[in-house]
UniProtKB/TrEMBL annotation:
Stretches that traverse the bilayer: 6-30
Domain of life the protein comes from: Eukaryota
Name the record gives this protein: KLTH0F18502p
A single Gene Ontology CC term: nucleus
Organism name: Lachancea thermotolerans (strain ATCC 56472 / CBS 6340 / NRRL Y-8284)
PANTHER family named in the record: RING ZINC FINGER-CONTAINING PROTEIN (PTHR45931:SF3), SI:CH211-59O9.10 (PTHR45931)
Pfam name, any one: zf-RING_2
A GO BP entry: ubiquitin-dependent protein catabolic process
Length: 267
């Protein structure tokens, strides 16, 4: 009798648990469980970014003239001066003792604090080959600007190096990451990429069978919601691709900042 009561209680619980797990897995696989934030990459680039695909994504952008003008004005106000974190990334800290092993004609003192270097000092070697105590040049950058105190070489990135990402983020709006509505996010991406509507319609063909219709009902989803998810995911895929390409472009610019001045003139 006890075993029958146990089975009568346990078996339905197991069945319900399996059904809930199946629903959650299916919803996750279809993309309903993602938060879709721009600051959380949805797709990881295992290989280098596809530059041809990047060019295609850029060509499909629809940016209104007012947003385009506003973003261009924002970038034209001044070059993107490196902040302290970016400056430290471009010119990492090294020990003076290690620096001396590779250079025969080294400087003996830091011109900022006027103190001589010793082998245990942490230093930064700038692209112009001038060296400073890391804490001295860091304070200089915070109080002044990203330039060498000796030769005044500027360490700023060129104007307009990140226009495409700025266009998209401006068009999607500042509250995109906080919005949980699939409909509003779908509408925002369609404003940026009108071709996503046709893209989603083609993708939905694979879900037109009776089996998929039943599966969508089973996981409490509709085709209109699924269309929105397809549009949002493809928008994020394009955004992540552009981020990876622009990060690659930024790394090229950082490498140019690390180059000695005379090498830059010969490029």
């Amino acid at each position: 009798m006890n075993s029958k009561i146990f089975a009568a209680i346990f078996v339905p619980v197991v069945i319900v648990s399996l059904l809930i797990t199946a629903v959650c897995c299916l919803r996750s696989w279809l993309g309903f469980s993602e938060s879709y934030r721009l600051d959380v990459p949805l797709y990881q680039q295992h290989d280098g970014p596809d530059l041809e695909e990047y060019s295609h994504c850029v060509s499909q952008l629809r940016i209104s003239d007012d947003v385009k003008k506003e973003v261009e004005i924002l970038f034209q106000e001044k070059p993107k001066t490196l902040n302290l974190n970016e400056f430290c990334e471009v010119f990492p800290t090294t020990q003076y003792a290690s620096f001396r092993k590779n250079v025969s004609d080294e400087e003996e003192s830091c011109v900022i604090c006027q103190e001589q270097f010793n082998e245990l000092n942490n230093i930064r070697v700038l692209g112009c080959s001038h060296i400073f105590h890391s804490h001295c040049i860091d304070r200089w950058i915070c109080r002044n600007s990203a330039c060498c105190p000796l030769c005044k070489r500027s360490y700023s990135l060129p104007v307009g190096s990140c226009h495409v990402i700025a266009y998209i983020e401006k068009r999607l709006g500042p509250r995109y990451n906080l919005d949980s509505s699939i409909t509003r996010k779908e509408s925002a991406w369609l404003d940026v990429y009108p071709d996503l509507q046709e893209f989603a319609d083609k993708k939905l063909i694979r879900y037109s069978s009776k089996a998929w219709s039943a599966a969508l009902i089973f996981c409490l989803a509709t085709k209109s919601k699924l269309r929105g998810i397809i549009i949002i995911r493809e928008g994020h895929r394009r955004y992540d691709l552009m981020m990876s390409v622009e990060e690659l472009q930024m790394e090229i610019l950082r490498n140019e900042l690390r180059m000695p001045s005379h090498e830059q003139r010969h490029r």
